[in-house]
Amino acid sequence: MKQFISPFQLAILVANFIFAAALITLPQILTQISIQNTWIVPFLVYPIVVVLLLIGFGRGNILQSSFLTNHRSSLHHLFYITIGLFLVIVYIRDLRAFIDFTSRALLPTTPIEVIAILVSVVLLYISSTGIEVVTRITVIQFIMLSATILSLPFMLLNEIELSHIMPILGTDTVENLSKSSFELLPWMGESLIFFFLLGNVAAKKGVKRAIIIGVSIGFFLLFLLIITSIAVLGENIVSKSIYPNFIMIQQINITDFLDRLDLIIVILWMPVLLSKLALTLYCIHRAFFNPNGGTTSNLLMTPLSLLLAVLAIILFENNTVHLEFTFLTWTIIGIVMEFLLLILVLILRFRAKATSLR
Amino acid sequence: MRRLFNILKHNRKSKIPETMDLAISTDLDNNIKFLKKQFENSSDVVFRQITTAKNKAYIIFVDGLIDSARIELHAIQQLLEQTPADALDTTYIEEQIISVNSVTEENKFKKLLKQILDGNTILLVDKFDKALVLGAKGGSSRSISEPDTESVIRGPREGFTESLRVNTSLVRRKIHSNHLKVVSRTVGTETQTSLAILYLENLAPPQLVEEVLARIDRIKIDGILESGYIEELIEDDTWSPFPQIQNTERPDTVAANLLEGRVSIIVDGTPFVLILPTSFWQFIQASEDYYQRFHISVFLRLLRVTLLFLALLMPALYVAIASFHQEMIPTTLLLSIAASREAIPFPVFIEALIMELSFEALREAGIRLPKVIGQAVSILGALVIGTAAVEAGIVSAPMVIIVSLTGIASFTIPRFNLAISIRLLRFPMMILAGIFGLFGVVLGSIVLLTHLCKLRSFGVPYFSPLSPLKWSDLKDVFIRVPWWDMDRRPKQFVKEDPVREGSNLKASPNQKES
Questions:
Q1: Which regions span the lipid bilayer (chain B) (predicted)?
Q2: Are residues B318 and B368 in the same domain?
Q3: How many Cα atoms are found within 13 Å in the side-chain-facing hemisphere of A272?
């Protein structure tokens, strides 16, 4: 039986999708490029992403209707395969990032293979419950994390130095901001997952608003983290730390007693990223093995999950190689695949419109 | 007649044959012979012969199940003294002689046997092919008293008993509405246990009632001795550690849930009544939350939610932090813990396991021991475990504090079935914490959360209204808003008539009468 989600849940899913993994290491490369002007970058990328999504969605609910029906054309299948491949790369990248972070921050003596298997088993359980349950746990955890992120500037008030975030305009400011925007765009372009999930939204009203709200929330939270980390640590530390946000939350010092809140915040963040990974795994499984979303067989979820976990380990020799892929390779792959997906969405929409006019 | 004779010849078990649908004959002797055969070796089944209007008659009942005084006064005495010789028939006896308040006719042996075993009295008269069933049940049963498991400071003090009729009457006293329906069912081939399914016709979704009845009708079992049998036979996911059906001993709890569109099942022979469908958050609600002023309710609810998480996670968090993430502990506290653990030969995880298992053993022993010595032994055990174990260097003082606080936290959960689930789940969390630290705790928590979000109770999501999120229903979950603001019933149960009170009920000095 097909499962459905509400526009509000869709918004939270999209917000989580673009925010949860981006906060791990992305601020480092962005700050390396555009130093203390980095907090401006989300404002530059946000309208681009929103416009692209609105162009893809178009007017009315024609695209949504074409995904809601069970009759799939070959173009639909092409779209699903493309987005499946896209999500495989996203999944491997994020899973390895999560494993590396866990290995560094929580379990330094545990082999990463053990962490990978453990995480995969948990993700397998979550993904096999279906989109409805994945959405429910995402909503609960994302709201908790968002409340924490919103309170971060207040918790770090005594550590913030506004001089760190004063914009410095130089001859290469525009160039640097453009480069950072180019770096950020593929990460935020992951919000294209929205088109894949359209087939699970029964409501016709409020879908467009949901995507704008979701993208806005994701961007805002990322902006808040970037500006707070630069304000607290300075661009020097942020650009050189692998996990700048983790270093930032280690500076929280409310009283002598409440100065070790970093791991507590990490505990709040980990389930949010696991929700994103679970959603990605679910979408990959559906894209390749169950494009209509109607059947409930999860037989192939187990080998798929374990295969992707193995790939996440063996494809990257160490964390440095993974970071290189994340900062450099992923940018190009991401942009190319996202534009390809957008073109496919546009073709699907035009074809659906032509069919409905006939 | 020949068929009846053949049946009498064979040695039949006391089980009422499903296929036997014999009718009562006009020959009283054959009828009695058949019934005596069914009840042979049952000395509590009494066959009292009388003569009424020169006709032989028998009064048959199970000694101990009937109200002997009423039968003697309103049936036997009437039959012996007031029956005219002529124009005697069952209708005349029923309408003009017997003054027991409930009299029905039966003409099949199968139903007659059931009536006798249910505690009714049977009157068989010679030359009549019908029997009269006199409803004068009695016997001794427990009186209505305050439930042991759900005592309150403020609120009604009556609790259900083992009698089905008493229990249905207790609910009827709360809800004086003709919309309250009481549907009967009988389950259990040997025990023939009576069930009463209660619901408010204008509130409970018809599909829910149909589903409940369908699941009960599907039950094929020899005996039902407690509502727990029914619970396990009809719940959605038996493998889940979380209960999906609530049980209570309080009629006011049942009435309140019926008024929110739920269905209740009363089982004869047990004071524990089932309420369904249920959500996770109902198990942390006590009936007293609705009787005290809302400030107290808010405080108690928030306290219970916090203690629920502590009951589940505190030992695991201590094990994880003490074993893997000592940097999280403030320095002075860390030195104190390190000093107390210096001489302990076991790792934190083993220490926690020892203490938790000892505590569980002590708690279980406290339930089973006779009340006279139970309290003394519990105190002694606590002292032995607490003091002596610390002084012997088996466990550390912080661990004793953690385990004690966890135990107290689990006692604050109002519903025992959820409390015991949380107690069980503590152990896997501790194992995960002992092996993987906080990472293991996080993974365990997310698996639990996923399970809770996946679970359903008769179609209703178990974690609602938190997930799926329904803002309007959250006013009775972590807090309880004042009664003048609780104008709507929970949306996941009642779709037809969601409004339960008028608007603008908040009193104020200048309020005009509407």
A1: 302-324, 344-362, 369-390, 396-418, 430-452
A2: yes
A3: 30
Q: Which among B325, B468, B469 is the nearest to A263, CB-wise?
A: B325
Could you report the per-residue pLDDT of B255-289, keeping only the tens digit for each?
Answer: 999 999 999 999 999 999 999 999 999 999 998 89
Instruction: Give the mean pLDDT of A115-120.
Output: 96
Please give the average per-residue pLDDT across A345-356, as a whole number. Answer: 86
Whether the CB of A115 is below 8 Å from some CB of chain B: the reply is: yes
* Side chain identity at residue A59, one-letter code: R
**What integer pLDDT is reported at residue A152 of this predicted model?**
93
Q: Each residue of A57-86: pLDDT tens digit?
A: 888 777 777 777 666 778 888 999 999 999
Average pLDDT, chain A: 91
Query: Quick one: B301 and B407 in the same domain?
Result: yes
- Choosing from B113, B134, B155, the residue where a domain stops is B134
Q: Which residues of A touch B469 (CB under 8 A)?
A: 8, 139
Distance CA B396, CA B336 (A): 11
Q: Is residue B501 part of a domain?
A: no
Q: Within 10 Å of residue B176's Cβ, how many Cβ atoms?
A: 7
Q: What is the pTM of this model?
A: 0.88
B117: its two tokens:
């075993």
Cβ of residue A149 closer than 8 Å to a chain B Cβ: no
Count other Cβ atoms within 10 Å, centred on residue B421: 18
> Do B225 and B364 fall within a single domain?
no
What number of CA atoms fall less than 13 Å from residue B169's CA on the CB side?
7
- Cα of B354 to nearest chain A Cα, Å: 25
Asked if B466 has any chain A CB less than 8 Å from its own CB, the reply is: yes
How far from chain centre, in Å, is Cα A175?
26
A108's tokens = 């330094």
Contacts of A256 in chain B (CB under 8 A): 330
| φ/ψ (deg, to 5) at A212 | -65, -40
The ranges of chain B with pLDDT < 50 are 10-19, 514
Asked if B463 is an interface residue toward chain A (Cβ–Cβ < 8 A), one would say: yes
Domain range enclosing B346: 294-461
- Closest by Cβ to B446, choosing from A107, A115, A271: A271
Same domain? For B72 and B16 the reply is yes
- The ipTM (two decimal places) reads 0.92
Distance CA B428, CA A288 (A): 35
CB B488 within 8 A of CB B465: no
Whether residues B123 and B22 share a domain: the answer is: yes
Question: Above pLDDT 90, what percent of chain A?
Answer: 71
- Is B446 found in the same domain as B299? yes
From chain A, pick out residues whose CB is under 8 angstroms from the CB of B466. Answer: 140
Domains of chain A, earliest start first: 7-357 (1.20.1740.10)
Answer whether residue B39 is part of any domain. yes
B312 and B457 inside one domain: yes
- Read off the pLDDT band of A185 (50, 70, 90): very high
Domain count of the fold of chain B:
3
- Asked if residue B486 belongs to a domain, the reply is no
In-domain check, residue B506 = no
Based on the domain organization, do B26 and B175 belong to the same domain? no
Beta bridge pairs of residue B131: B106, B124
CB A76 within 8 A of CB A290: no
